[in-house]
Every structure is written in structure tokens, then in C-alpha cells.
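Annotated sample (chain length 325).
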Amino acid sequence: MKGLSWIRESLTLKGRIIIAVLSLVIIVGGGVIAFKFYDFTQNNPKFCVSCHLMKPAYDAWKKSKHAGINCHECHHLTIPEQNKLLVTFVLHRPKSVPQRHGKVIVPWKYCIKCHWDKDKRYPNAPLINSSPGHAKHYFMEQIECAKCHGYITHKFVAAARFCLRCHQGKEVHGAGMQKLACLNCHTDRTQNLKPGRKKCLFCHGNSSIRMELVADDTLDVKYFRPSEELIQKAIKINVPKDAPMQFYCYKCHKPHEKLRPDYGTCMSCHSQIVNVGRHKLHVQKMGLQCTTCHKPHSWRVSKKAAKKICTQCHEYRNPLSFIGS
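Output written by the structure step:
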């Protein structure tokens, strides 16, 4: 207290004012500098790249869909974790970023802030609240977002066949489909993610169906579309509106199992057909395939069709006589 009384007694009013102003400048200036430094470390991605290890991640971020989004919007560290990183960097001087060892770098709760509810700051962020694919993998299976999105640093759209990392043994057969992206067939348009008929007709149908699917803007057609070359090569099919068996293509076609449907596939539903009419003669004794007479996707053997199909082996007979015999 004596020191303070000495200052009060020895300093003039002008001196006191100068000291007070200088003290205020130091306090305010220090506060501003501290705030600026804190803001730089927490809200400026350039702080992250000041560490030489982060240059590849920073470059990938600049080219990504998240360019312009502050690093700390997604990456959150506690104070102890930040200090641990600093100590590790100063003492050990690592040459590369260590492997994750299974750790989730960005938990789902940060992803959901923009991709579930609209965030005014990022109005173009795709929403997943009407996506059956995300409902199954995230809400039902409890799979973290980063398991599929961002497993390659700052690359958020999964690779074409990334699904095979979990769904092992689900490669498709040949006949032009072996290099397709998983979402070229599987779709957000159905609850079970299996392709609806129109999804198959994206390649095997006409351009009007493709335009309809593209206009729906579901995730599968937004990010994964077969090449024009592949679409042109695909066999085009026509399903008459009055054709029987109007169900999903995958009921007969099993692209993860075999090339094309065969007699066994038909018999899985039509197990008693050999006891009807002359099916036993044609199928079991003559060894004909079902599709020799029943042309795929129209199936019904009409009188007109019978005049072309049946006469390849024998004279024309009314198809009704085949059933009734």
C-alpha cells in the first residue's frame, strides 16, 4: 500500500492519466490480440495448414464439397486433446499423420446438423431425412457417417464399389455389369434399396425412363450413372402392359449369383407346372428351356406367337390344346 501511496503522492495528474491510458491500451490490446489469435486458431483453416502434416488434407479440403466450411464446424477437439496434439508435434515431430486405428474423426452428430435440418449458412447441403439408404445404414445399423463418407480424407462421395468393403462376396456377374457402381442398381427409390423395375430400365429401357429417374434426383442417379456407352450396349427389353408376372426384375434375375435365370429359377415359383398339360413332355423329356416357348417379359404364348414358336418343331396347334392335354 505504501508503494501505491507513493505513486499517488509523487505523480502528477498528467502522469496518472498517462499510466491509466497505457494500462487500458495494454489490457484492451492484449484482449484483442488474444481474441484474434483464438479466432484464428478456431475459425481459420489456414491455422490447420500451418502444421506441415496438414498440407495434403488442406489441399483436399479446398477441392471438396466442404470447401468454404470452417474446419472446426466438423472437427472438434477438447482442450486436453488439443494440448496433446501440440505436445506430440513439438516433442516427436512426426513425419506423417498416424492411422486412425478405428477412431471416428467426425462423429455423426456434427454431420447431422447440416444434412438433417436445413442450416441457413449451408442451404445447398444434401438432406438425408428422406433417404432409405441412410435410414438403413445409419439409423438401423448405427454405422457412423465417416465409415462411408470421408474415409478418404475430404472425399465425401463414396467410391463406386465401396459397399463391397462390408458386403463381401456381392460382386456382380459379367455380361457388362461387372464394373457397375453399386448404386447403378441399388436405389434410394425403394425401402429395401433393391432396384425397382424402372431402375433396371435405366439401361434396359428407353430414354424417357432415364429422364424420369434423373428428374427425381435421388442419390443413386445424382452421383452414380452408367456411362452412355454402357447404356447403348445394354439389351433393351419391352414389358407389355398386359404381360403376366409384373413384378421386380430381381425376382428372376440374381446378378450377384449367376448370369441369367434358368429352368431352376422358373421352378422356384412354378414347381407344379410339369404336371400341367404337355409341360412334362417338353421340359423333362425333350429338355427344352422354359424360355424356348415363353419369351422373356411377355411370357404368354398367344396364337400369334405359337405360329412362330411351335412351328419350329411341329405343325401349328392351338396353345389351349397344350394346356388341356
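Annotation: The chain has a mean pLDDT of 85.
Annotation: The radius of gyration is 34 Å.
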